[in-house]
Design goal:
Elements (H helix, E strand, L loop, with lengths): L14 H41 L10 H72 L8 H4 L21 E2 L6 H9 L8 E2 L16 E4 H12 L10 E3 L9 E6 L4 E6 L10 E13 L5 E14 L2 E5 L7 E6 L5 H13 L6 E7 L9 E9 L1
Helix pairs in contact: 4-5
Amino acid sequence: MPKKNETVNNNEMSKEELDALKEQLKKELLIEMKKDEAEKYKQEQALKTRIEESNKTEFKVPTKSKIDRFDRNIQKENKDSQVENIQASSNYFLVFVLLIVIAGIYFIPQIANMIKKDNKSKEVETEEKEKKKKEEEKVNYTWNDAIIKDITLPIMRISPGSAASYYTLDKMTVENMSNNEILFNAFVNVYTGNIGYYQGGYDGVFCGSADQQRELNAKYIDARVDNLFTKNTKYTHEDFYVPFTVGSAYYGLWRFNPNTYSYVYYGECNPQGLAGEFYYDILVKDEIKTSKDGKTAYLTYSMGFAKMIGDSYEIYRDANYTNLLISDTFKTNNQEKELENVFADYVKDHDVNKYKYTYSKKDCSYSDLCYISGEWINE
């Protein structure tokens, strides 16, 4: 029995009651879970049914109304029309393809050859440009460089039958040349393909055959002067005479026509022969020097001067033919080549006079080297 002053708490549950309550709650929880599972299953079945129904093919009941028949007739006509168009288009397409194939068989080899030629010409052009660029960039020239090999020395001796030459001067420039000499120096370096046939009349006597009736546009003379003696060379266009000794097939008189800016060939009306003594300048390569900017080249030669009388020859140190070095008779028919070989062997063991040519790109056309001067460097 509790004490009199203690209060009994009726809200407290016994162990048996608690166990009974837990059991009851567990049963209720299981029932709720089963309800949830049943609801979920029901939802899944409904979803499955909807999916199956949506996958079923929809069949329409055929109709025999006039509208539907009319609609089907239109569709059939459109379909037939499309088939016919497709067949026609296909035939045209096949013919078009066939024409392309035939044209390809015929033209492709020609096109390939054209492309090949074009590529080849481009390659050659590129190689030439690269070669020229390398030479332009080169600082020190050699005798084997194309730009050096292309140099044309001025004609220093007008006639091999005379001892007179520009080598008797200590220094020589274009200003020492006559107008006639400038013009025929340019003329003998003009490409012969630029000398065309002349079909006009002659103001005077023409001394030559019909095949020698020729004409030359003066612009080719201008171009050669600019590229031989620089663009600053002073000269005038007038009649000029080409000596037969310079090696041109068109030696003699060329007359200038200012109206057509051209020269007409009149031939050689006073032919002259050579007899007696012959004179020849011998140049043996010595050295090349180049300016720091690579625009000027100095070509030095060992010089000798030959006098030929019949089968005999004499080689002198000076252009005045006073200091004799060698005398002998020719052993071959190629006299000039023999003289060069004899003198080249001589300079190996002997000192001779040296002559220096100066060539420069300054004021010269086409990036070539133009003649500036010639001078003795020891005499």
